[in-house]
Amino acid sequence: MTEIKDAPVRDETATPPAIELVGVVKEYHSHGETVRAVKGLDLAIGEGEFFSLLGPSGCGKTTTMRMIAGFEEPTAGEVYLHGRKVTGVPAHRRDVNMVFQSYALFPHMSVFENVAFGLRRKKVERAEIVRRVGEMLEIVDLLGRERRRPTQLSGGQQQRVALARALVNRPRALLLDEPLGALDLKLRQQMQVELKRIQREVGVTFVYVTHDQGEALTMSDRIAVMNDGVIEQLGSPRDVYEHPASKFVAGFIGTSNLLSGRVGEISGGRAVIALGDGERIVVPLREGITVAGGHQVELTVRPEKITIGAQPPPGDGSAIRGTVTEVVYLGTSTNYQVTTSTGAEVVVFTQNATSAEDIAARGDSVWLSWDPRHSYLIGATP
């Protein structure tokens, strides 16, 4: 049996968040084995926040959401909604609603009746139902389509009906499990903007589960990047993208170049990796990682932060040589794949705003340079 540690002490005097998980563990038992899907999760989601659980399949994000909703119970730890412990409370008695990828609309009912379904079950008066359904259909931009059936709507319109049905009951939190997964790319991108607008208008806490980094970056106030049952990084979209806390986060969020080298000197709060013949990588030293001369370090730099040119760059920033191995034209940008003098594979994104010509061709020798502020250490060993 896997040992489960006691949950941390919770501050009962502080203003409670909308959703709080304290030391939450979820284990499953199959064929004599214990699988720990969620491993001691501590998490607080603020009132009115758009919060995303992001990660690959099997990382524990949907299990975490299902424990918040009450469809699963934690093996250990506690779940709180607005300061009230709901561990063991059935799903229908929790003041949250959930929207699934399948939408689960009633095909024989009109848009109006689908949205009004929960209010009718609560025996709300008819005049109040008409008013609240009308308000919600206006928010999701479906006024005039009240009498249509779900089969007469587009995928994006069906998704908005499911949202309206979930929100019309005025839950204090809405849980969304990959609700855009069934839509095509263009519609999915449009709905990302719509979802954020709707969340802002209704002011309800949204918890959004997705494996799509673009969705999370577009809509979220904060993102929890999950991997193997734990949160690897928690922060704003900009912080998670610009300053990944681990190799996993760097590789999972966007495209990132992973480089390594041995520190030659520490100077002015920066570590310098000298590669010889004018080549160097300069990394600012930030909190959390201790580095000394001679340490082997790993760092990341985003492709759009790198400048590619034929001559060595001036100044004392990062500069390494390489050979272009591939050029891919993408309309608004061009991607260059470069093999550096140390054998590392680096990707560079350049915007096609000022020139219709490629900066370099396949086989060209080039210099790659970037501001040291855009290098970010993710690991160091003696």
Automatic annotation (TrEMBL):
It catalyses: ATP + H2O + polyamine-[polyamine-binding protein]Side 1 = ADP + phosphate + polyamineSide 2 + [polyamine-binding protein]Side 1. Residues 19-253 form the ABC transporter domain. It comes from the Bacteria. Gene3D superfamilies: 2.40.50.100, P-loop containing nucleotide triphosphate hydrolases. GO terms for molecular function: ABC-type putrescine transporter activity; ATP binding; ATP hydrolysis activity. Pfam families: ABC_tran, TOBE_2. GO terms for cellular component: ATP-binding cassette (ABC) transporter complex. Keywords: ATP-binding, Cell membrane, Membrane, Nucleotide-binding, Translocase, Transport. Its EC number is 7.6.2.11. SUPFAM superfamilies: MOP-like, P-loop containing nucleoside triphosphate hydrolases. Belongs to the ABC transporter superfamily. Spermidine/putrescine importer (TC 3.A.1.11.1) family. The complex is composed of two ATP-binding proteins (PotA), two transmembrane proteins (PotB and PotC) and a solute-binding protein (PotD). Part of the ABC transporter complex PotABCD involved in spermidine/putrescine import. Responsible for energy coupling to the transport system. This is Spermidine/putrescine import ATP-binding protein PotA. It comes from Thermomonospora curvata (strain ATCC 19995 / DSM 43183 / JCM 3096 / KCTC 9072 / NBRC 15933 / NCIMB 10081 / Henssen B9). The lineage of its organism: Bacteria, Bacillati, Actinomycetota, Actinomycetes, Streptosporangiales.
